[in-house]
Amino acid sequence: MKGKRRCRIHGGAPGSGAPSGNKNALRHGHYTREARAARKRARELLAKCRELAGRI
Q1: DSSP string, 20-37
Q2: What is the pLDDT of residue 29?
Q3: I need a surface site. Which of 10, 11, 30, 55 has the fewest CB within 10 A?
Q4: What letters, b where the CB count within 10 A reaches 16 and e where it falls short, cover 24-56?
Q5: Is 46 in contact with 38 (CB distance < 8 Å)?
Q6: End-to-end alpha-carbon separation of the chain, Å?
């Protein structure tokens, strides 16, 4: 920022940055506990399928 020593958004000053409690990352539910667990189960199933296909 002109005339300032640090940016009001990125400068790390107290009170700068996104508001506390910002829920933008949760808008579509991609990072909910249930969604992460479902992705983990899918990765595990895919790994088992690859292992089985490798044995065939």
Answers
A1: TT--GGGTTSTTSHHHHH
A2: 79
A3: 55
A4: eeeeeeeeeeeeeeeeeeeeeeeeeeeeeeeee
A5: no
A6: 63
Query: Position 15: which residue type?
Result: G
Structure tokens at 15: 């009170």
- Amino acid 30: pLDDT: 82
Predicted model pTM: 0.52
Per-residue pLDDT 10s for the chain (56 aa) are 566 677 766 666 666 666 677 676 566 778 889 999 999 999 999 999 999 999 98
Reading the block at residue 46, the tokens are: 């895919």
- Contacts (Cβ under 8 Å, ≥6 apart) of 1: 7, 8
Short-list 28, 52, 30, CA closest to 39: 30
pLDDT for the residue 31: 82
